[in-house]
Fold:
Amino acid sequence: MQPKSSNLQYFFVSFVSLLILRYASTAYSGTFEPLPPAECVTRDQPNPIASLYPTNATGTLNGTIAILPISLQLARQLIPPQYGILEHAYRALLPSFPKGMYPAIVQAVHDHEVQAFGYKIPDFTRAGVEFPFVDLLNDNYTSFKWAPSLLMTAGHDLALNGAKDYGTNTFPATFDPGCDAYRRVKSDKPGTTFFSAKSDEPGAASMSTLFSSTELEEFPLQFFKNFTNQPTFADGKTCDNMIRLFDTNVTTTYGIQRVKGTVRTQMPPFSSEHEWKDVYGLRLDTTFIENNYMDCKTFQGYSGFE
Ligand SMILES: *[C@@H]1O[C@H](CO)[C@@H](O)[C@H](O)[C@H]1NC(C)=O
Ligand SMILES: *[C@@H]1O[C@H](CO)[C@@H](O)[C@H](O)[C@H]1NC(C)=O
Ligand SMILES: *[C@@H]1O[C@H](CO)[C@@H](O)[C@H](O)[C@H]1NC(C)=O
Ligand SMILES: *[C@@H]1O[C@H](CO)[C@@H](O)[C@H](O)[C@H]1NC(C)=O
Ligand SMILES: *[C@@H]1O[C@H](CO)[C@@H](O)[C@H](O)[C@H]1NC(C)=O
Structure:
């Protein structure tokens, strides 16, 4: 793909304006302002690829990704009607996936040390239900991921506006834990972790997950690699090319855990609260390189980062 200098510029402009804002607020806040509350300190490992791709946006994503099986009929109702669903594409990867079903996915991740040109933005958390294998270009071939709504760290205007620019329905939210991907909780099952998010607007959107470790490899790792790397869109005007790397040391040193558990969500495009029990997923950290606001058409035939 040809580099687009406008995207580079977009990043540069956002990061520089963030810096100016921060500078302005420290310069003018004076000595009368109360001290801000102590920042919570994340347990996330540093971004190991920032210096490899200094002029790209890079970061790490720590959290949980799981498959939410829904009926194809429901998927068809939720995904905008102008876009086909590439059932043959997910069946090629998951031959035994139940007939008449579609793999929606849940992602609840902590974005850490996101940076470009040496400028880092504060960490944030986001969570949502996403719909992979969508035929955005109507070519019956290229898979895109539709991510219509996100719960995102309240007050993080850069991240919230960055998502809104894709047409994403964003819900400023409070997360538990506040600045990590999940937290350990006591349970009779090993390796149990909890995560929750609640929109600041009461009742607008929420999610909670409870996952335990499992030995079962219900879905192949290649399936997770495949859908997490599909170009992502909301209103379809531009696409986010987030390249998730599974072979850097935040993943290889700290490992990928297979998990099984319960996900509860109340957020669009679902019209009511849903609970999925015994869903399978991964708990992991990966690095990423992100190319924002790309022309979706340039991804025709794209099948991942080489
Ligand atoms: C890094 O950014 C440039 C310019 O936007 C882009 O052309 C290139 O593909 C990006 N690198 C990766 C690995 O995505
Ligand atoms: C991911 O987050 C969990 C929960 O905070 C933490 O225990 C784990 O060490 C993190 N993994 C990496 C590679 O940063
Ligand atoms: C991961 O890689 C980075 C960059 O090469 C290095 O600085 C860091 O120490 C490594 N971390 C571990 C745990 O190996
Ligand atoms: C993702 O899966 C589709 C088939 O369903 C395949 O054409 C494509 O090459 C895969 N891409 C990656 C990166 O595995
Ligand atoms: C889409 O492609 C698949 C696999 O190549 C094929 O089986 C199917 O008939 C095609 N659908 C249409 C509408 O062309």
Remarks:
- The domain at 8-299 is CATH 2.40.400 (Acetoacetate decarboxylase-like).
- Residues 5-28 form the longest helix (24 residues).
